[in-house]
Amino acid sequence: MTEIRNYDSAEDVAQAAAENAVEILQLAIESKGTASWVLAGGSSPLLAYKKLVKDYSDVIDWSKVLLFVGDERMVSLDNKDSNWGAIGKILDKSPELMKAKRIIPDTSVDVAIAANLYEQQIKSEKIAEFDLVWLGVGEDGHTLSLFPGNVAFSESTEEWVVPVRNSPKAPAERISLSLKALEYVDELVIFAVGASKQDALKLARLKRTLPVAVVADVVESNGGEVRWLYDEAAWNDD
Ligand code: 6PG
User: Fold this and answer.
1) For the chain, N or C: smaller number of CB within 10 Å?
2) In the 8-state DSSP scheme, what is residue 234?
3) Each residue's pLDDT tens digit, 31-49
């Protein structure tokens, strides 16, 4: 099932995303004892992480939550471009949220080795599926580090994590969950925020070939739920 929700502002999107996240994670903990959540990189979800710290730190038992990033840039954790670096700084503000187990990829090795190691880290957690995945979207319709025309997106693979080279968005080398890994997603939330994303999002709704549309279709066609959270600035249906 796919749902498009429209909100007035990125602030409202962040509030809705945070609320929805604790609901989904709580249900997973109640039914399985643990919950697995893939966090989105980039700037769009940062407000939502801050809301979680501020308003939802004591709502669920975070020690039962596994945290992954959907993609990571091949930089050190203290580098400004590190997704875990940026997210961790926010979550560190909550002693409760710090109880969640972070699965952090090793970005100090060759990108192909890093992808393989991260896949092993994910698989060693023995999860059947990701309970929740958060994704952003780029102005070219990329999501995760799956870029239009890049082999990491265009080449099919059985790997759950792929090395990304020549990324059009710096830094050039990254690792990313693949389309294969997205066959194992229960709930997908896409942050569709900001005027600069309007064209890509409209194209993604019309022509299902952009990475963010293909990702959403893979999740839905494998039984997952997809929620697009739009702010007013990103919505254009002219
Ligand atoms: C990354 C992200 C990427 C991001 C989009 C949108 O590591 O770069 O995973 O897919 O979500 O580029 O980025 P913004 O939210 O900063 O616009």
Assistant:
1) C
2) G
3) 999 999 999 999 999 999 9
Q: Rounded to two decimals, what is the model's pTM?
A: 0.97
Separation of CA 1 and ligand 1 centre (Å): 24
Q: Give the Cβ contact number of residue 234 at 10 Å.
A: 26
- Ligand 1 and 224: CB distance under 6 A: no
Tell me the H-state helices in 33-65: 46-55
Q: How confident is the model at residue 237 (pLDDT cuts 50, 70, 90)?
A: confident
- Summarised one tens digit per residue, pLDDT across range 164-189 is 999 999 999 999 999 999 999 999 99
Give the atom of ligand 1 at the shortest distance from the alpha carbon of 83: 7
Closest Cα to atom 8 of ligand 1: 42
At residue 65, φ and ψ (nearest 5 deg) are: -110, 135
End-to-end CA distance of the chain: 24
Ligand 1 pocket check: which of 145, 161, 162, 231 to mutate, most ligand atoms within 8 Å of Cβ?
A: 145
Check if 141 has its Cβ closer than 6 Å to any atom of ligand 1: no
State how far the Cα of 128 lies from the Cα of 223, in Å rounded to an integer. 13
To which residue do tokens 């080449």 refer?
155
